[in-house]
Amino acid sequence: MDETLLKIKNLKTRLGDADNPVYAVDGVDLEVRRGEVFALLGESGCGKSMTALSAMRLLPPSGCIIEGEAFLEQTNLFALPEREMRSVRGGRVGMIFQEP
Questions:
Q1: Labelling 70: which of 20, 33, 82, 91 has CA 20 to 30 A away?
Q2: Do 15 and 60 form a contact (C-beta atoms < 8 A)?
Q3: What are the domain boundaries of the chain?
Q4: pLDDT tens digits for 10-34?
Q5: What's the CA gap between 22 and 13, in Å, rounded?
Q6: Among 45, 71, 49, which residue's Cα sits nearest to residue 60?
Q7: Segments in 1-100 forming alpha helices (H)
Q8: CA distance 89 to 51
Q9: What is the pLDDT of residues 60-83, one digit of tens each?
Q10: Does domain 4-88 have CATH number 3.40.50.1820?
Q11: pTM higher than 0.70 for the full model?
Q12: Any bridge partners for residue 14, and if so which?
């Protein structure tokens, strides 16, 4: 039985346009298993929040996921229609934002 709750593979997120790109997330891999305590740590501006926002598809208008996969158990988060994704947010996954 697979105990993986969240798996993110080779996640790459770009902000801005093609002429002036900012690669806010560049090749992140992570796996969170059932019963595991998981922490994503790093310096200010290193991409922690953008990684979570990318996985939840809550990017600002200038943001886009250019590569990677995100699975919540067996559900491909990047393939879900927006309506189904809304039920995942707050239903199966919650986020506590650092800024109100």
A1: 20
A2: yes
A3: 4-88
A4: 999 999 988 999 999 999 999 999 9
A5: 8
A6: 49
A7: 48-55, 82-88
A8: 15
A9: 999 999 999 999 999 999 999 999
A10: no
A11: yes
A12: 23, 64
What b/e string do you get for 25-40 counting C-beta neighbours within 10 Å, with b at 16 or more? beebeeebeeeeeeee
Single-letter amino acid code for the residue at 71: F
- For the chain, the C-alpha Rg in angstroms (whole number) is 14
Kindly report the length of the chain. Answer: 100
> Would you report the helix, strand and coil content of the chain in percent, each value rounded to 5?
15, 40, 45
d(CA 95, CA 19): 32
- Cα–Cα distance between 15 and 30 in angstroms, integer? 21
